[in-house]
Amino acid sequence: xxxxxxxxxxxxxxxxxxxxxxxxxxxxxxxxxxxxxxxxxxxxxxxxxxxxxxxxxxxxxxxxxxxxxxxxxxxxxxxxxxxxxxxxxxxxxxxxxxxxxxxxxxxxxxxxxxxxxxxxxxxxxxxxxxxxxxxxxxxxxxxxxxxxxxxxxxxxxxxxxxxxxxxxxxxxxxx
Length: 175
Known about the structure:
Blueprint: H1 26-35, H2 39-79, H3 81-123, H4 126-166
């Protein structure tokens, strides 16, 4: 008897519908019917209703003041429109140009930043590139210095040769 496995016991309960036809949870529905609104909700309505009404009234007053001001200023806009329209256009263009230049500047800076980061990742290090660039610049400076010296010597040699052949000396008048 001990060799034989014991059967497991399964408890079967009758099916209970946790949801009614509307889809609300029955337990929550019963609790809401018994309690009503909480004190926090009541306080929120009591405090926010006057604040909301006051703000709505102020918005209406602001709208009315804006409309009255526009009606009073409309004749002035018509009288001064030959001056105001070009001034508004000029100010609008100036603001547009300022914003555009800022956008171009930001675009340029971000492009330079991206290129720098790309080169850093691609080459593995900027210090080696800087040392190489410094050496190349020093070599180019030395080369141009040597070339300038040679050109100066050539000019001096040609000037002396011209002096010998023509007998002309600068600063001395030939009569």
